[in-house]
Amino acid sequence: MKNIAVFASGNGSNFKAIYYKINDGVINGKINLLVSNNPRAGAVDFAYKNDINVKIVNDVRYPNENKKNNEYKNILNLHKTDLILLAGFMKKIPKNIIKKFNNKIMNVHPSLLPKYGGKGFYGINVHKAVIDSNDHFSGATVHFVNEEYDKGPIIIQKKVKLEVDEDYNSLSEKVLKIEHTIYPYAVRKFCEENIIINKNKVYISE
User: Fold this and answer.
1) Strand-pair partners of 85
2) Which residue among 79, 109, 127, 180 is the active-site one?
3) Helices first, then strands: H and E counts in the chain
4) Where are the alpha helices (DSSP H) in 102-148?
């Protein structure tokens, strides 16, 4: 069983989706830590209600950058973390954590990367860019995190067709449903040790 830490800044819908899959016995893992920069986040409230350890790490509590980065490392070590999941975490992951957890940090992005990835492309901004570009398809991507925004090895993608009258909100709902499917799948495969990375390319075995 893999020990999982989730990083979230908001409501954490993907965090919840994965938590429920674990509870249902689909994923052989345990979320034993939630890290957030926002003590009022819905994800924090959910974690407390479900007896998941919570650690708040932000600039207010840790104004010194080095101490903050060390706190990330210390809390992850304390909980013997095998996998980190980003679920709407609005802060950049420090280089020391990316290096220590190489190919052990996952994120889900609401587009078909490499399209509409990088700094500034998050949430509704992505869906606006897709519609404004008159794309026929969008989707979601689960990828490993490296030092460049949204450029880590892609694990899995799934696409959805845009309707003629598609707007930002309807597209957001469609893509979120995809996220709630492919993110738990990727986590399950990681926990089964069925993900192999060779020359920056990801292979998933059944």
Assistant:
1) 6, 106
2) 109
3) 6, 9
4) 124-132
Four-point Cα dihedral 10, 74, 95, 22, nearest 10? -50
Q: What is the pLDDT of residues 90-102, one digit of tens each?
A: 998 999 999 999 9
Please list the helix, strand and coil fractions of the chain in percent, rounded to the nearest 5, in that order.
35, 25, 40
1 sits in which H/E element: none
Residue 95: burial class (beta carbons within 10 Å; 0-12, 13-18, 19+): exposed
Is 79 an annotated catalytic residue? no
Strand partners, 9: none
Nearest C-alpha neighbor of 57 from the set 73, 75, 37: 37
Phi, psi of 87 (to 5 degrees): -130, 75
pLDDT digits (tens, 9 = 90+) for 115-131: 999 888 888 999 999 99
Pairing mode of beta strands 154-161, 137-144? antiparallel
Q: Contact at 8 Å (CB) between 129 and 152? A: no
Interval 61-96: pLDDT, tens: 999 999 999 999 999 999 999 999 999 999 989 999
